[in-house]
Design brief:
With 269 residues, this protein is mainly alpha-helical. It is 78% helix and 0% strand.
């Protein structure tokens, strides 16, 4: 057996670890709680009650719950385990001659990086070193704009971000999320469908808005126009009927959170 096969078997064994899959399910549950809080905060902002409706704001709210710091550390471990599980799935497809498997590996890689970023955000707050998503986005966009061809690069970042949001909307509208879970039967199936569709579409709209803000920052060459997810949702609130739109997105994020709880139990791992 050569070194490549041994490495592949080791990665496969890690991915099939019962402890890791259990922790990955906890990661889905942690993501669910985070989205519930994000939805609540979005509705608060729509009602002019302030706060940050992004992931860092949600984790800050989580820390305020009874036993919140324990919940936050569980979220760190669960999200990190989920990120590791997804990265393992991505690694298992590398080198495959199947085009479909390559695509799945790239999707798993992207999700793994996203969940690792969430784990990092939660860890920063658990270590009493919170970050602000809008400031981080402005710093990132400023760095990109300072590079040769930075304006075009930031436009690409914005378009890719908007494309990811568009995929979320497509995934919700077409029920493509069925591929990720073992659907229950009867009324439970209808409930999971409704939560998945509403949640994916609402989250997609928020991410598309974030992408648009990056493009605007690039076109105007002003990093201040870039913002994190909190800034994107607040930008929606400033539109005509924006408060109503933001309330609907808040409800949608809550639906996504409830879907994530269902996914913690039903996910195909």
């Amino acid at each position: 057996m050569n070194a490549a096969n041994e490495a592949h078997q080791a990665v496969s064994k890690t991915g099939n670890s019962r402890a890791l899959t259990i922790m990955a399910r906890i990661g889905f549950a942690a993501s669910g709680l985070m989205h519930l809080l994000m939805g609540y905060l979005a509705i608060q902002i729509a009602n002019h009650q302030g706060g940050e409706s992004d992931q860092s704001g949600a984790f800050a709210q989580m820390a305020k719950l009874p036993g919140g710091m324990i919940l936050l550390w569980v979220a760190v471990v669960g999200l990190a385990a989920l990120a590791l599980w997804l990265l393992v799935q991505a690694a298992l497809g590398i080198g495959s001659s199947s085009k479909k498997r390559w695509v799945r590996s790239l999707v798993s890689l992207g999700k793994g990086v996203a969940y690792a970023a969430l784990a990092s955000t939660a860890l920063s707050l658990a270590l009493r070193n919170p970050s602000n998503s809008s400031e981080s986005a402005q710093q990132t966009s400023g760095t990109i704009l300072s590079l040769p061809g930075g304006q075009a690069l930031l436009i690409v970042v914005g378009l890719v971000t908007a494309g990811i949001g568009g995929y979320f909307i497509y995934k919700g509208a077409t029920k493509k999320f069925h591929e990720d879970i073992a659907l229950p039967s009867g009324q439970a199936k209808k409930a999971v469908d409704a939560l998945g569709m509403t949640g994916y579409i609402a989250k997609g709209i928020a991410i598309v808005t974030l992408g648009v803000l990056f493009v605007i920052a690039a076109v105007q060459v002003d990093p201040k126009d870039a913002a994190g997810l909190d800034g994107a949702l607040k930008a929606l609130a400033a539109l005509p009927f924006g408060e109503a739109i933001l309330i609907m997105i808040g409800v949608g994020l809550i639906a996504y959170g409830l879907y994530s709880f269902a996914r913690a139990r039903l996910a195909r791992l």
